[in-house]
Specification:
alpha+beta
């Protein structure tokens, strides 16, 4: 499976791939519960995050999928990133935005204050799921983590993905209850793939 570093020209398609990949995700269905919001509002969210994270150099694509990582030497999101996220979410979902950002903050607070690569999003469009695209996209940086002795983290928003993450060496740090589901911050020490 061919995984390559993304170019800025890939980001629009990547945002669409993420919106398709997360269309049945509990967290994103909680954020955007009305079918009329799909795929327009989630695509705008993913486009913002990809645009802000892209300059940090660790966005990868494959046919129908995208994965974005923040490296250990970068503080993300910065104050301007947070402000843009707050403005966008507030314009999309109103007063629920503050609750959503609170849950995101609660999940983020569970991570150790240690250098790590953090996977912001990994998603594969539904027609390509089950073909190993997600594993390949994640593996691009996890191989670097293993080689260089760097930890990795992510937050799972869908328990259907836990088997994949655990098979790659991630372990649950906590459960952040939302409404009928949980956000799961996960951590991986280098060299711990099952």
């Amino acid at each position: 499976m061919r995984v390559r570093q993304a170019r800025r020209a890939d980001l629009d398609a990547g945002a669409c791939d993420l919106a398709a990949a997360f269309a049945a995700d509990p967290w994103f269905r909680w954020l955007y519960p009305d079918d009329a919001m799909w795929p327009r509002l989630p695509t705008a969210w993913f486009a913002l995050v990809l645009d802000r994270a892209f300059p940090h150099g660790h966005t990868y694509v494959t046919d129908g999928g995208i994965c974005n990582w923040i490296p250990p030497d970068v503080h993300f999101p910065g104050a301007d990133d947070v402000q843009r996220a707050v403005e966008l979410l507030a314009s999309q979902i109103g007063e629920r935005a503050s609750r959503a950002l609170g849950f995101i903050g609660d999940a983020g607070a569970e991570f150790p204050d240690e250098p790590r690569f953090h996977c912001v999003y990994v998603g594969v469009e539904p027609t390509r799921q089950g073909e190993g695209c997600g594993r390949a996209l994640l593996g691009r940086v996890l191989d670097v983590c293993d080689r260089d002795g760097i930890a990795a983290s992510l937050t799972s928003t869908n328990d259907a993905n836990l088997a994949l993450y655990r098979s790659l060496g991630f372990r649950d740090l906590a459960e952040v209850p939302v409404e009928g589901f949980a956000l799961r911050p996960m951590w991986r020490e280098p060299g711990l793939a099952a």
